[in-house]
Amino acid sequence: MVLEVTNTNNVKVYTVSGSSLTRKLPDWLVKRKRRELQKDVEWTRRIELIQDFGFPEASLRLKVTPDGQFCMATGVYKPQIRVFDFANVAMKFDRHTDAENVNFCVLSDDWT
């Protein structure tokens, strides 16, 4: 994976949110406003952070679903599985387990 890098005053800034072509605009924006924002450099280079994208202790495994819409992660103490939704930039749900999760795999194209 190659990140886009800009260098300003000898400070490297990495673009971690992907290219501007892959980002979708929110549905609530009217069509005209969407067209204007697609041409806005600041809007296309923005970084969106997922809320609650962390674990109290540590995360051992992270996997993205084949459709690229969700991220599944496992953590330790208290063992849990969390699913994050990239479209809504938020956590979909989390489930606690009785034992530490060693490994997991996504069986379908999405998290279901």
Blueprint of the fold:
Layout: E1 4-8, E2 11-15, H1 31-39, H2 41-44, E3 58-64, E4 70-76, E5 80-85, E6 90-96
Antiparallel strand pairs: 1-2, 3-4, 4-5, 5-6
Can you give me a brief rundown of this structure?
By secondary structure, the protein is mainly beta. Helix content is about 10%, strand content about 35%.
Characterise this structure.
- By secondary structure, the protein is mainly β.
- The protein is 12% helix and 33% strand.
- The chain is built from 2 helices and 6 strands.
- The strands form 2 sheets. A 4-stranded antiparallel beta sheet has the order 3-4-5-6, with no helix packed on it. Strands 1-2 form a two-stranded antiparallel ribbon.
- β5 and β6 form a beta hairpin.
- The mean pLDDT is 76.
Strand order of the largest sheet: 3-4-5-6
Q: What's the story with the biggest beta sheet?
A: 4 strands, antiparallel
Broad shape? extended
Point out poorly predicted stretches. none
Question: What would you call the quaternary organization?
Answer: single chain
Averaging pLDDT over every residue, what do you get?
Answer: 76
Helix-strand string: EEHHEEEE
Number of helices: 2
Beta percentage is: 25-35%
Amount of helix: 10-25%
